[in-house]
Amino acid sequence: MSGKFSHDDDSVVVIVGSGAGGGTLAHALAKRGINSVVLEAGKRYRMEDIENDEWEMFKKISWLDERITAGPRQLTETFPNLPAWIVKGVGGSTIHWAGVALRFQPHEFRLHSEAGDIAGANLLDWPISYEELEPYYVQAERHMGVTGESTGMPYHQWNNNFKVLAEGAKRVGYQKLRAGPMAINTQAYDDRPQCMQAGFCMQGCRFGAKWSTMYTDIPRAEASGHCEVRPNAMALQIEHDANGRATGVVYADGEGNLQRQKARVVCVAGNSIESPRLLLNSHSSLFPDGLANSSGQVGRNYMTHATACVFGVMPKPVHMHRGTTFAGIISDEARLDRSRGFVGGYTLEVMSLGVPFFAKFMDPSNGGWGRDITSALDKYDHLSGVWICGEDLPMEDNGITLHDTRKDQYGLPVPIVYKGDHPNDEVLRRHGQAQATKCYEAVGAERTFLVPDFPTSHNVGTNRMSARAADGVVNKWGQTHDIDNLFVSDGSQFTTSGAENPTLTIVALALRQAEHIAERMQRREL
Amino acid sequence: MKPDPRATILSRRRFLTLSGQGALLAGGLALSAGAWLPRWALAEPDLASRLLRMGRDIYPHEAIADRYYLEPLQPLLEEQREMIDAGLAALDRRARATHGRDYVAIEDERERVALLREIEDGEFFQSVRNTLVVGLYDNPELWEPHFGYEGSSWEKGGYLNRGFNDLVIDWL
């Protein structure tokens, strides 16, 4: 049964967003008896809405409100209004994520200390260590059903796509090859069934074998009576009182009417474009540069991972579309080793696309047509693919700003999403492309080719954590340095990107934050 | 999608009356008279031939029938007919200036492709290309027969027992 909290109820925690951060947080608070109202900009989907159809699902669930892609990168030309491939719906981008559930490595929390100052990078250590987060990683893995030690669930069997990449990788000398950890059940777990190897992980899991807040945390939080989720509720502004404490959130409801939900605590979890956008849009006479922005870092240090794909045409059919989309991981290059010519590492993750998306993404530039393209498509069933997930250095000028004049359907300034590469990113990417190409050549590829990065699903860093208030937006708990009862609960907290997919870390941080908020509330500090 | 046979016969008759014109395009590409073509293509075979030539130069797949290139272009023609007409006319002017003949009459694929490369940054070219990149490759009729892509699988229980890990690497 869904709780029904009045707009004037100022005892609730208001959470903006229902994905990995917000959905997890709402559920974890509910378990502690803490009431929350979740404002979700998107609608609610049912399992029957999930189809194995790339374009249909893209049109159905993607965040397609106007955004402007900017910066010296190919996406500015190829996807001028789609910088990010993320979801607008109850469950957020946990509907779309592919289930790769890697922990960050210990050194990645202190990359600045390890690497020193790097020209052009706004590098900073996280204010928490791996050791501090480790117990929450374990909790998160059990919570999400991650294959491996924490749950005892075995890793997936290697699918055809991974068999190909792994054989090449072994011949290149790589040893850290695993078909996990994945938050995709290999056995029934937590009232969800085992994976049927259907593919289409990024279109939403029709079976619910992949963890998503859409069908775990959100309905469970609602069933507790301690959480009310309001779909189609677009947060417009966080309000505050004369003392600078957050008092509530103004939002547009499904009919376009403005509503105001009062709050004891506000938690922002709208992903790394919308979260800083909301803080910036909440500027006031007291906070003319936006909320929680005394550091000037709100919206800055936008990171996406340094990425690219490599595909190989194999001598025989592979059928890469069969089985989980991201089926295997190679971690040999994830280490920190500056002898390679770059700082940070990268993970190689075997991936597949269906014919519709492969055709679209293989080369989306204006010149991406002709026999080069179609000769690869004619061999679609012979393809194997790998995605490079590399450390993306924070740069102060990469970030989210608000357009001066263009407004969206809610009357809010359209976000400009600016991103350029640090030279380190380029060296890392080229290294990854070369190594992945070697793997495919070693397994007998008849042809290999590079595929550029597509609109990114890994968006982090725009409200980063810092020990000092001058360096970032939130402290080690995700609490904003400036406003006691305002928290950030999504990937925008990340101080650095790591070489791992962000979701597991977002969930671990949200579980830890829920515990912290509950304790502080109990002590009447919030 | 099954075409209405009656409409097809009528339209084909109209097409045949115009097909002398089609034959003149022989250097390029005659429409395949026996295939199920969309009505607009039968009504305007000249336009269809030109767009078909262009579509096949952009995404050449000899084994894919004409109608798969032509059907997805219908909404574009309905919405942006003027732009398409102007774009084709400009392409022909360019072709006549360099080769002394219309684009479709240029026999050498490399020469046609070179012409298209010159206009690939333009709205006309990219409209046709972007229409086809979805229209051609998001057509389930072509997925398995042409590309070996099996499409939706959940209703068949996924691939857990249908070959997700059946590959034996025996070519090394």
From TrEMBL, chain A:
Name by which UniProt lists this protein: 2-keto-gluconate dehydrogenase
Protein family membership: Belongs to the GMC oxidoreductase family.
Domain annotation Glucose-methanol-choline oxidoreductase N-terminal: ranges: 128-306
Cited Pfam families: GMC_oxred_C, GMC_oxred_N, NAD_binding_8
Keyword Lipid metabolism attributed: no
Phylogenetic classification of the source organism: Bacteria, Pseudomonadati, Pseudomonadota, Gammaproteobacteria, Oceanospirillales
Keyword hit for Signal: no
Keyword annotations from UniProtKB, A to Z: FAD, Flavoprotein, Oxidoreductase
Taxonomic source organism: Litchfieldella qijiaojingensis
Domain Glucose-methanol-choline oxidoreductase C-terminal intervals: 395-510
Residues in the signal sequence: none
From TrEMBL, chain B:
InterPro entries: Gluconate_2DH_su3, TAT_signal
Pfam families membership: Gluconate_2-dh3
Top-level lineage group: Bacteria
Protein name: Transcriptional initiation protein Tat
